[in-house]
Specification:
Largest sheet of chain A: 6 strands, mixed
Structural class of chain A: mainly beta
Strand content of chain B: over 45%
Oligomer: heterodimer
Number of helices of chain A: 0
Helix content of chain A: under 10%
Helix content of chain B: under 10%
Shape of chain B: globular
Strand content of chain A: over 45%
Number of strands of chain B: 11
Number of helices of chain B: 0
Distance between the termini of chain B: 37 Å
Distance between the termini of chain A: 41 Å
């Protein structure tokens, strides 16, 4: 069965600084990987996804993530954050077993300070 | 395109009472999910439907939780009787047919349950 570990529960960072949110997963089969963002009192929305092909994936709002199969990681990065990026970020993995069961990590709260 | 609709947005009940949540997925989405998100945690999959059939309900506490998706469109999640630990946000999500390899889930805004 797949599992997801987000290594940081909270990440405080100053505005315009770079940020990396870390995610590791475990699975015995091929996986699809996702990052979702949740703003206060809202549902989750997709930031980016890795299905196949290039291991560097670009998403919305200037975020990108790199799939590293040997390290089973899918870290999320942004070169310069804004106050509006303050939110909860969830890494998720879906196993390619036909049923597309998607498992989420515990989340990382990104807090951008002025 | 209309998104995933959920109701009610908020519900407060006493323990041992019952509650029901409703979800209407995006039109044409065959797969529907219910997740439970406890404060400070990631969403936990409760049940997954493909059309009106259950694909996975291994994490659903079947002694108190039930869910149905009649006619393969909207869905209802029921809790009876509720316990204090059921306080959470219940998220509904939908996706295109699982065989279409996009895997993206579209979420509703959630139903926040408080059990007193």
């Amino acid at each position: 069965a797949q599992s997801v570990t987000q290594l940081d529960s909270q990440v405080p960072v100053f505005e315009e600084a770079p940020v990396e949110l870390r995610c590791n997963y475990s699975s015995s089969v091929s996986v699809y990987l996702f990052w979702y963002v949740q703003y206060p009192n809202q549902g989750l929305q997709l930031l980016l996804k890795y299905l196949s092909g290039s291991t560097l994936v670009k998403g919305i709002n200037g975020f990108e993530a790199e799939f590293n199969k040997s390290q089973t990681s899918f870290h999320l990065r942004k070169p310069s954050v804004h106050i509006s990026d303050t939110a909860e970020y969830f890494c998720a993995v879906s196993e390619d077993t036909g049923g597309f069961k998607t498992i989420f990590g515990a989340g990382t709260r990104l807090f951008v300070k002025a | 395109e209309a998104g995933v609709a959920q109701s009610p947005r908020y519900k407060i009940i006493e323990k041992r009472q019952s509650v029901a949540f409703w979800c209407n997925p995006i039109s044409g989405h065959a797969t529907l999910y219910w997740y439970q998100q406890i404060l400070g945690q990631g969403p936990k999959l409760l049940i997954q439907f493909q059309n009106n059939g259950v694909v996975d309900d291994s994490q659903l506490p079947k002694d108190r939780f039930s869910a149905e998706r009649l006619k393969g469109v909207d869905s209802t999640l029921k809790i009876q009787p509720a316990k204090l630990e059921d306080s959470a946000v219940y998220l509904c999500a939908s996706s295109l047919t699982a065989g279409v390899r996009t895997g993206e889930l579209f979420f509703g805004e959630g139903s926040r349950l408080t059990v007193l």
